[in-house]
Design a protein that fits this description.
By secondary structure, this protein is of the alpha/beta class. It contains 26 helices and 18 strands. A five-stranded parallel β-sheet has the order 7-10-13-4-14. A three-stranded antiparallel β-sheet has the order 1-6-5. It binds adenosine-5'-triphosphate and magnesium ion (MG).
C-alpha cells in the first residue's frame, strides 16, 4: 500500500534527523553552527526569509505568504519590518506581544497558522534545527546550563548571548542525575509540532469560570506529592501548560482581549523579563514569540480601560485590514472554495469577480478628490489604468484614509452566500447573477449591516451588476466571431493602411484587381465614430496614430491593436456594432430557425471550449445577454 510506504518513509526521514549527545558534544556542534542557538524570534524571521523575497515597486514581497494570503503585501511588509526583523535582532520589540488587529475573517488566524506550520517545517531543516535538554517537558535551552558568571566569557568565545536561567526541574536533575556535571547532561534535537505539543502553544478563551490558570502554566501533580514529599518539589509539578510547551517557539493567544485578566497578567513578566511564575517555584525562563489577535472594537475597549495600561504598553499592534484589490479578492474566494465542500460545483466565469467587486466597494471609502468616483478608485487600487490618473494619485488616495479596509463585507459572508445559492439551484452550476442575488438576499441576516449600510450596499450590488452586464455582452459578442483576435487584427490593419494613405496623400491598391483607390473614408469614420471622434478632430487623431506607429518602429517594436488604448476600444466597438444585430436576433429568438440554431450551438461550444463555461452556464449567459440587448 502506497500510503503506508509513505508513512514509513517519513518516519525513516525523521529518524535520520535525530541527534542526541552530551552537552560537551553540543558545544562542539555550536562552534560550527551558531544559528542553532538562535532565539525564537530570530527563528521565525529566518524561516520567513528562507522562502525568499522580491522587491516590487518599493514594496518587499515575502514569498512565504504566497498562495495563501492575498492582497495584504503592505500589511505583511509592516509585520516583518516592524516586528519580526527587529525582534530577531534582539531589539526591544521582541519583549512585546504581537497583536494582529483587524476585521472579522480578514486573515489573522490564517497568518498565525502559517507561522506555526512554517516553524514546524523549519525545525526539520538544517538551518532551523533546535536542540533541547533531553527529557525536559519545556525542552529547555541547553545553554541555560552555563552558570551566570561564565556567560560573558562564553559570549566572547562563541559569540552567543545566553538569556534565562536553568529551570527548577533541570537544576534538580543536574544535581541528582548528573552529579552537577553539566558536560554530561544529555541534549537532543527536537522537532516542533503543535500536535505533540512541542514548541507551539495555543490558548483559546473559554468559559472564564472553568478556565484554569493551569492551562497556561501547568499544575501540581497530586499523585506524586506523597512520593516527593512536598508541593515545591519540581518533580511533583507538571510543566504542561501552553506557556511551558510553547517554549522555544510560538505561543498563540486567540481572541486575546476576550481573556480574563488573570491570564493576561502572566504575560506581563513573560514578555518583559522572559519568565513566568508557575506553582511555588522560582520564576521560569521561557523564550517564545507571543502572538495574539483581536478585532478593532475589542481593542478600542481594551485601551480605553486605564487598568490595562501596563499590558498595553507591552503590545505591538499590527493592523491586518481587508484586501482592497478585486483581482486578489477573487483569488481568496477561489482558495476558500477549493478548500470547501463546494469544489465540485461549476462556478461560471466572472461570478467570483462580480462578488469581489461588490465586497471591495463595501470596503472602500469615497474619495474627496475631484473626478474620482468609487469605481475608478476600485480600478486604480487593483492596478488598472484609469484615464487621467497615475501612480501618484494612487498613493495620495491611499493616504486619504489610513484606516481603510477595517470594515465592509468579509470573505466568509461571500462564501456562505455562494453556498446558499448553490442549495437553491437544482443544478450544481452558479453564475454571477445567482451570486449577486444571494449576496443581496443575505443582508438582513448579516448582524453587522445597519439599515444605513444596507442602502449603500444595494447600490454596490447594482454597480457590480452593471459591470457584469458589460463583461457578459463582450464575452458573448466575442464568442460570436470565429476568431475574435483575428478579426480585430484584420480590421485594424485595414484601418491603418487607410490612415497612412490618407495622411501621406497616397492611393491604395486593391489587392484583387490591382486598381488604385482612394482611402476608404467611410470605413475610417465608422471606426472613429465609435469613440466619438468628430469630423474636425479626425485628422489630428489619424496623425497621432501615425506618430505612435513610427515611435514604436524606432524602438523596434510592432504596433498592434493592443498598443493604442482608444484605437483598441474603437475597433472593439466597431466589431461589436457590426455583430449586434446578429447577436440580438439570434439570442432572443423564441423559435430560432435552423441557421440560428446552428449559430447558437457553435457559440455555446466556443463558450465551453475557450471561455470556461459549462452548457448550463453558457445557455444562461446567452439568454441573459439576449434580454440585455433587447432592452
Ligand atoms: N487576504 C486574504 N488572503 C487569503 N485568504 C484570506 C484573506 N482574508 C481572508 N481570507 C480567508 O478567509 C477565511 C477567514 O480568515 P481567518 O479565519 O484567517 O480570519 P480572522 O481574521 O482570523 O477572522 P476572525 O476575526 O473571524 O477570527 C480563511 O479561509 C482565509 O483563508
Ligand atoms: Mg481568527
Amino acid at each position: 500500500m502506497d500510503i503506508l510506504n509513505k508513512v514509513k518513509q517519513a518516519r525513516e526521514e525523521e529518524d535520520q534527523l535525530k541527534w542526541e549527545g552530551t552537552f560537551a558534544e553540543y558545544l562542539d556542534l555550536l562552534k560550527e553552527r551558531k544559528e542553532v542557538a538562535q532565539t525564537s524570534h530570530s527563528r521565525v524571521y529566518h524561516m520567513i526569509n528562507s522562502f525568499g523575497t522580491t522587491k516590487e515597486k518599493g514594496l518587499t514581497k515575502y514569498h512565504f505568504f504566497d498562495d495563501a494570503i492575498y492582497g495584504l503585501d503592505e500589511a505583511i511588509e509592516r509585520l516583518v519590518e516592524e516586528y519580526f526583523h527587529p525582534a530577531a535582532k534582539r531589539l526591544d520589540v521582541r519583549k512585546r506581544i504581537l497583536l494582529l488587529m483587524g476585521p472579522v475573517s480578514g486573515g489573522k488566524s490564517t497568518i498565525v497558522t502559517m507561522l506555526k506550520r512554517g516553524l514546524e517545517e523549519y525545525s526539520r531543516t538544517e538551518e532551523g534545527a533546535v536542540y533541547a535538554i533531553k527529557g525536559c517537558p519545556m525542552h529547555e535551552d541547553p545553554l541555560h546550563l552555563i552558570p551566570n558568571h561564565l556567560r560573558e566569557e562564553f559570549y566572547e568565545e562563541f559569540g552567543i548571548r545566553i538569556e534565562g536561567s536553568l529551570s527548577p526541574l533541570n537544576t534538580m536533575r543536574l544535581e541528582q542525575e548528573y552529579d552537577g556535571r553539566i558536560e554530561n547532561v544529555l541534549v537532543e534535537r527536537i522537532f516542533f509540532s503543535e500536535d505533540k505539543r512541542v514548541g507551539i502553544g495555543t490558548f483559546t478563551p473559554s468559559d472564564p469560570k472553568s478556565q484554569d490558570i493551569a492551562d497556561l502554566t501547568g499544575s501540581i501533580d497530586f499523585s506524586t506529592i506523597a512520593e516527593f514529599g512536598s508541593e515545591s518539589d519540581p518533580r511533583a509539578y507538571r510543566f504542561d501548560g501552553e506557556l511551558n510547551k510553547a517554549n522555544r517557539g510560538i505561543m498563540e493567544f486567540q481572541e486575546m482581549l476576550k481573556l480574563d485578566e488573570k491570564f493576561l497578567w502572566h504575560l506581563l513578566s513573560l514578555t518583559q523579563e522572559g519568565n513566568f511564575k508557575a506553582g511555588r517555584f522560582a520564576l521560569i525562563s521561557a523564550d517564545e514569540m507571543i502572538v495574539a489577535h483581536t478585532n478593532e472594537t475589542e481593542y478600542r475597549a481594551f485601551i480605553s480601560n486605564k487598568k490595562n495600561e501596563a499590558l498595553h504598553s507591552r503590545i505591538i499592534v499590527i493592523p491586518i485590514p481587508y484586501n482592497l484589490k478585486v483581482s486578489q479578492e477573487e483569488r481568496i474566494y477561489e482558495k476558500m472554495i477549493r478548500e470547501s465542500d463546494m469544489s465540485h460545483v461549476h462556478i461560471a466565469p466572472h461570478a467570483l469577480r462580480v462578488a469581489a467587486i461588490f465586497s471591495i466597494l463595501t470596503r472602500l471609502k469615497a474619495s474627496k478628490k475631484q473626478g474620482i468616483d468609487i469605481v475608478k478608485k476600485m480600478r486604480l487600487y487593483d492596478g488598472e489604468n484609469v484615464e487621467g490618473f497615475n501612480i501618484n494619485d494612487l498613493e495620495e488616495l491611499k493616504k486619504e484614509y489610513p484606516n481603510e479596509g477595517m470594515d465592509g463585507i468579509d470573505p466568509r459572508y461571500v462564501i456562505n452566500r455562494i453556498s446558499s445559492a448553490i442549495i437553491r439551484k437544482e443544478v450544481p452550476s452558479i453564475n454571477a447573477l445567482d451570486v449577486l442575488r444571494s449576496l443581496k438576499d443575505g443582508f438582513d441576516q448579516h448582524a453587522s449591516i445597519t439599515s444605513e449600510a444596507k442602502e449603500a450596499y444595494l447600490n454596490y450590488i447594482s454597480i457590480a451588476r452593471k459591470e457584469y452586464d458589460e463583461i457578459a455582452k463582450k464575452e458573448v459578442q466575442k464568442a460570436f466571431v470565429y476568431s475574435y483576435e483575428e478579426s480585430a487584427k484584420t480590421l485594424m490593419d485595414n484601418y491603418l493602411d487607410n490612415v497612412e494613405a490618407f495622411c501621406n496623400k497616397h492611393k491604395l491598391r486593391d489587392p484583387l484587381t490591382g486598381e488604385e483607390m482612394n482611402p476608404d473614408e467611410k470605413l475610417m469614420r465608422s471606426i472613429e465614430e465609435q469613440i466619438g471622434i468628430s469630423e474636425n478632430a479626425k485628422r489630428a487623431f489619424r496623425e497621432e496614430i501615425l506618430i505612435r506607429i513610427s515611435a514604436y518602429a524606432r524602438k523596434g517594436q510592432r504596433f498592434n491593436y493592443q498598443s493604442h488604448e482608444r484605437l483598441r476600444e474603437a475597433i472593439q466597438k466597431k466589431l461589436f456594432a457590426d455583430l449586434k444585430d446578429v447577436v440580438k436576433i439570434t439570442t432572443s429568438s423564441a423559435t430560432p430557425d435552423e441557421s440560428q440554431l446552428k449559430k447558437i450551438n457553435e457559440v455555446v461550444a466556443r463558450l465551453i471550449d475557450d471561455y470556461g463555461y459549462n452548457s448550463v452556464s453558457a445557455n444562461e449567459l446567452l439568454r441573459y445577454v439576449g434580454s440585455l440587448l433587447n432592452r
